[in-house]
Amino acid sequence: MYKLFCDSNCELWHTVVERLGLNVIKMPYIIENNEYFYDLGKDTDFKAFYSAMRGGTVPKTSALNEYDYIEYFEPVLAAGYDVLYITFSHAMSATFMAMDMAVADLKKKYPDREIRAIDTKTISLGAGFIVYYAALKYGEGATMDELTAYVNELIPRTATYFAVDNFTYLYRGGRVSGISRVIGNLFGIKPILYFNEEGKIVTADKQKGFKKAVASLLSRLEEKGDDADKYKIFVLQADCEEVAQAFVADIKAKYPAADVVLQPVGPVIGSHCGPGTLGLIFHAKER
Fold first, then answer.
1. Full-prediction pTM beyond 0.90?
2. Of the residues 123, 138, 155, which one is the last residue of a structural domain?
3. N or C: which terminus of the chain carries fewer CB neighbours within 10 A?
4. Distance in angstroms (rounded) separating the CA atoms of residues 111 and 274
5. What CATH number is attached to the domain comprising 16?
6. CA 252 to CA 235: how far, in whole Å?
7. Do the Cβ atoms of 61 and 31 come closer than 8 Å?
8. What's the rounded Cα separation, in Å, for the pair 105 and 69?
């Protein structure tokens, strides 16, 4: 028997996580010297967070430490269960170094228990997409090996794209150079970014103006999308709800049978992409 874990960087909505019975590792963010842990929208004031960012506040994120992971995993191991943790991209955070140390310590204490982590090589609802469908299989009684095989097949077919309104936040996170930030912001260039096979953010396209950037996102769905009537399509918005709602309407017009879910970007992810970001996650022929 095993328990299925995810983290709040998968950004599945709190009611969905509760319904699926997932164990959630909450990831931290810091704003005005106060540390918070993202609750998947349960009590999060998204408007206040993004208003503060637009006003010049610079939120930060931090990694969990070894003891945080032990606190999450040990009660489950002590109760006689194994652990399967579906994570966000290991290329995006140093937190997994702490996790590896915690797992090494716990395996010494619980040698008969298994702790397995699967790197989705994506983040936000890209990881959430994978966690969601894995949780359905878990609920049907899939073994750990069966679920691992299923997730590993789903990872390369989960596409995570997003259009960013402003280079400033990517620059602060070390994702673009200072020159790119100045030129991009000056000329209204909007990058279209995605997660590659290694779990790293790379540029798929650049458009002048957000309207063209949104059109580019839709073209990615049309070009790479697969089984839109079988899998959910997730749309994410960071304080740009009207644009996102119009985008959802465009998707539904092309894919009337699709289940399109619109959600806000949480504070941890939002700290790096900034307000005005629009995301698109879907099942694809390839990433």
1. yes
2. 155
3. N
4. 43
5. 3.40.50.10170
6. 12
7. no
8. 11
Report pLDDT digits (tens) over 33-57: 999 999 999 999 999 999 999 999 9
Query: In angstroms, rounded to a whole number, what is the distance separating the alpha carbons of residues 265 and 274?
Result: 9
User: Same domain, yes or no, for 80 and 179?
Assistant: no
pLDDT for position 189: 66
How many of the other CB atoms lie within 10 Å of CB of 251?
Answer: 23
Domains of the chain: total: 2
Given 155, 178, 198, the domain boundary residue is 155
How many other CB atoms sit within 10 Å of the CB of residue 154?
A: 18
H helices of the chain, in order, are 14-20, 46-54, 66-78, 95-109, 125-139, 144-154, 167-172, 178-187, 210-224, 241-254, 267-273
Secondary-structure percent of the chain, ordered helix, strand, coil, rounded to 5: 45, 25, 30
Quote the tokens at residue 74. Answer: 């040990």
Confidence band for 202, pLDDT divided at 50, 70 and 90: confident
- Distance CA(176)–CA(195), nearest Å, equals 15
Count CB atoms within 10 A of the CB of residue 107: 14
137 with 199, same domain: the answer is no
123 and 6 co-located in one domain: yes
Mean pLDDT of 9-34: 97
In three-state secondary structure terms, 237 is: strand
